[in-house]
Design brief:
The complex is a heterodimer of chains A (297) and B (276). By secondary structure, chain A is mainly α. Helices cover 74% and strands 1% of the residues of chain A. Chain A has 13 helices and 2 strands. Chain A has a two-stranded antiparallel sheet with strand order 1-2. Chain A is globular, with a radius of gyration of 24 Å. Chain A starts with a helix and ends in a 6-residue tail after the last helix. By secondary structure, chain B is an all-alpha fold. Chain B has a domain at 69-242: MetI-like fold. Chain B contains 14 helices and no strands. Chain B is globular. The chains are: A mainly alpha (297), B mainly alpha (276). Chains A and B meet through helix 1, helix 3, helix 4, helix 5 and helix 7 of A and helix 1, helix 2, helix 4, helix 5 and helix 6 of B. Chain B: Keywords: Cell membrane, Membrane, Transmembrane, Transmembrane helix, Transport. Chain B: It is a multi-pass membrane protein. Chain B: It comes from Flexivirga aerilata.
């Protein structure tokens, strides 16, 4: 009895000791910053002068002067360009490559390679490929008699090109999740429905998609969260330009915070972005929960 | 019937070849360009082999533009970050998975909530905190926010540790092992796959991280590869030879990592997918 409580106390002490570093990290570098960013968003502050409490003025000002509305619109546009295409491609590629064979597995591996590549480095490569005068894309186009646009300096094309670079970077990574999901579907389910005379398309609609829902939820949620935060590719390829054609929220947070030193405005923008990401994530979970019959982990 | 099968097979292989080309071509062209003089990049086609094969681009970026410093900084930060993150996360994960203590549920829920915080949201306050602490523009700033373990890694490892049979740990405990000893002698050997996975995740993150190093440093001596390339790109955008050579330098270690740990990387994605 005595050793038992001694054991328990020792275990308790060990637990707190083992937990201490990560608890310290999570508190100081995540929880405290969350509280601070909300507090900062009510201040007018450039880090040098004394901060001044301005209430909700930053939230009004970022829309009035900083172009928050436009940046939000561009961000949403980017997410809409990015997510459906990337998800559909990833799923299509996974279904295509969901079989054994040496060649297939080599191609699978090649598709994942971009996920590891530094986005900054790849952004440079894409910038070069889309260069108007000696880039690969326009050289190819001119070979068939088309004069290609100045992609990254075009109001119309800059955002799609950035989205393209990101899809290329992450589609293979998402494909892996779909592959894992597909492999978890028992073959008998398909066999049974084949006997019942179901077409491939009906099988996809009534078996594959419903059973892939947890994977789909995961890919969509992480993809949407990531896309709302897009920065590296935009910063390197366009710096938010031409004009404000690719100024996404994150680019705006960066410029107001770290170039303009408007800490309050940048914090307000961060809080707005956070609330939007949170709302979209919750919406996705609710939607999927309603439509998923079985337990989701 | 037979002809049909061959046609299908051919179409399938062709489709895969096209997909492979889409993913490989940018690398191939970037690698070739890195060995071409600037004039050749600008006048020729991307698909031309280098006519005047040269290492000059690399000697220039390392000789004149501190690329060696960037490489060392990145490697150092990534190493510290990965060791700390994996070690401290494993400690936390062990406590959550295998030890009984008051407040366990509440603290774990706190971690789960922090899992949902997007990276950018904390950037401004992190910068202010670091700047008040005098850590901006020091080596510390680059790894401190990530070195103590992340909720994601703790969560990932906890899920894995839960699957280790409890009898093994109980037996060690009855033998009088301290918890730290159990962790290092019993748990670590059994948790090797998840340790490799978490290390890979941390290394990829550390190596490719951009926004935070961009904010936290502005002196040349402290810059990381990603920031170096981005600055390089805006200062010398016309000098594709140098910028592409720099990008290639940043890519090589990750590609090597991938080739060596290919199976683990694919598995690690599956693991993190299964633990959603």
């Amino acid at each position: 009895m005595a050793t038992d409580t001694g054991n328990r106390r020792r275990q308790r002490l060990a637990a707190y000791g083992l937990l201490a570093p990560s608890l310290f990290g999570v508190t100081v570098f995540l929880a405290v910053p969350i509280i601070l960013v909300i507090a900062f968003s009510f201040l007018r502050w450039n880090l040098l002068n004394a901060p001044e409490f301005v209430g909700l003025a930053n939230y009004v000002d970022v829309f009035r002067y900083e172009g928050a509305g436009h940046a939000l619109w561009i961000t949403v546009l980017y997410v809409l360009l990015n997510i459906p295409l990337q998800t559909a491609l990833a799923l299509g590629m996974a279904m295509l490559m969901n079989r054994t064979g040496r060649f297939t597995s080599v191609v699978r591996v090649l598709c994942v390679l971009p996920y590891l590549a530094t986005p900054v480095a790849m952004a440079v490569v894409w910038q070069w490929i889309f260069d108007p005068t000696n880039g690969m894309v326009n050289t190819l186009l001119s070979a068939v008699g088309i004069t290609g646009p100045d992609w990254l300096n075009s109001n119309m094309w800059a955002l799609p090109v950035v989205a393209f670079a990101n899809i290329w970077q992450y589609v293979g990574y998402n494909m892996l999740f779909f592959l894992a999901g597909l492999q978890a579907i028992p073959a008998q389910v398909y066999e049974a429905s084949s006997i019942d005379g179901a077409s491939r398309f009906r099988q996809f609609l009534h078996i594959t998609l419903p059973l892939l829902r947890p994977t789909l939820l995961f890919v969509l949620v992480t993809g949407v969260i990531g896309s709302f935060q897009v920065f590296d590719t935009v910063y390197v390829m366009t710096k938010g330009g031409p004009g404000k054609a690719t100024t996404v929220m994150n680019q705006l947070i960066y410029t107001s915070g770290f170039q303009g030193f408007r800490i309050g405005a940048a914090s307000a923008l961060s809080v707005i972005l956070f609330l939007i990401i949170l709302a979209v994530t919750i919406a996705q979970f609710t939607y999927f929960r309603k439509r998923t019959v079985y337990e989701m982990v | 019937m037979f002809i049909n099968q061959i046609a299908r097979r051919t179409a399938y292989v062709l489709l895969l070849v096209v997909i492979a080309a889409v993913f490989v071509t940018p690398y191939v062209f970037a690698v070739m360009a890195a060995f071409k003089p600037l004039g050749e990049i600008q006048s020729g086609h991307a698909w031309d082999l280098p006519q005047h094969f040269t290492f000059d681009n690399f000697t220039t970026i390392f000789g004149e533009y501190h690329f060696g410093d960037y490489l060392l900084n990145t490697a150092g930060v990534t190493l510290i970050l990965a060791v700390g993150q994996v070690g401290f996360s494993l400690m936390g994960a062990y406590a959550f998975a295998r030890l009984d203590f008051p407040g366990r549920e509440a603290i774990f829920w706190g971690y789960l909530m922090m899992l949902m915080v997007p990276n950018v949201v904390t950037m401004i306050p992190l910068y202010v905190m670091m700047s008040k602490a005098g850590a901006v523009n020091t080596y510390w700033a680059l790894f401190l926010p990530y070195v103590f373990g992340t909720p994601y890694t703790v969560f990932l490892m906890r899920q894995y540790l839960l699957s280790i049979p409890g009898e093994v740990i109980e037996a060690a405990r009855l033998d009088g092992c301290s918890e730290l000893r159990i962790l290092t002698r019993v748990v670590v050997p059994m948790a090797r796959p998840i340790i490799v996975t978490a290390t890979i995740i941390a290394v990829i993150f550390g190596w490719n991280n951009f926004l935070w190093p961009l904010i936290a440093t502005d002196s040349n001596a402290l810059q990381t590869l990603t920031v170096g390339i981005a600055n390089f790109n805006s200062n010398f955008a016309a000098q594709w030879n140098l910028v592409l050579a720099g990008s290639l330098v940043a890519l090589i270690p990750m590609v090597v990592l991938f080739v060596v740990f290919q199976k683990h990387i694919v598995n690690s994605v599956n693991v993190s997918g299964a633990s959603r």
